[in-house]
Design goal:
Elements (H helix, E strand, L loop, with lengths): L6 E3 L4 E5 L5 E5 L4 E2 L5 E9 L7 E4 L5 E4 L3 E4 L3 E2 L5 E3 L2 H15 L6 H38 L8 H4 L3 H5 L1 H11 L22 H7 L1
């Protein structure tokens, strides 16, 4: 799931920018500026109106110019007329902007810097988590490949796989098979009990042996 982008400056915001000779300029943001892509973004410059106090500004045309984030001092609170082209700041707001500009030139971090630092820290954390996940997947894939390379055990021959029937069936079955396999002894007749003799009187072979 994609992470929600963090808004730095909203559409229509007015920004105070570092100007010349300790002065600040004002510009308007025509579209949202997000923290993950704020290095350079488009703005529309505001020009001072005929006002000795320097509190009124106007926007002429729709031309956009690229502005580097490092020159932004802070957002400015302005009043906008119905046309959306005329802006005015109060004396108090003008003093606040001048103070913020002086502090920034003295080395103080602008208010937007904290947001950028938090965004960069979050991005680094996500990249580290992705690297850990990628490493884990590589290890898992390597183990799977190694397992596939191992020779598979051959199937034992049918006569080796078959279990000894005698052992499988138990001693009772074995005894029954032994009994079944033995031939019954044939009882000798009375005529066969004497070697080479026959009790029948008219047996020609026996009569020949008697002589």
């Amino acid at each position: 799931m994609a992470r929600k982008r963090r808004l730095l400056f909203g559409r229509g915001s007015v920004l105070a920018v570092v100007g010349e000779e300790g002065m600040f300029w004002l510009c308007q943001v025509p579209q949202n500026v997000y923290a993950d892509a704020a290095d350079v973004f488009n703005v529309r410059w505001l020009e001072t109106a005929d006002d000795d106090r320097g509190l009124k500004y106007e926007r002429h045309g729709t031309e956009k110019n690229g502005l580097e984030l490092e020159f932004v001092v802070c957002e400015a609170a302005t009043k906008v007329d119905k046309s959306g082209k005329k802006f005015e700041i109060t004396k108090t707001e003008k003093k606040r902007l001048e103070k913020a500009l002086a502090e920034m030139k003295a080395g103080a971090e602008p208010s937007w810097k904290k947001v950028i630092d938090e965004e960069e820290a979050q991005q680094e954390k996500e990249e580290e988590e992705e690297e850990i996940e990628d490493d884990k997947m590589e290890v898992d894939n390597g183990e799977a490949e190694e397992q596939d390379k191992k020779p598979k055990r051959r199937k034992r021959k049918a006569d080796e796989e078959d279990v000894d029937e005698d052992e499988a069936d138990g001693p009772a079955s074995k005894a029954a098979k032994d009994k079944k396999g033995k031939k019954k002894p044939v009882a000798k007749t009375k005529s066969q009990s004497k070697k080479g003799t026959c009790q029948k009187y008219h047996c020609l072979s026996c009569e020949g042996s008697r002589k």
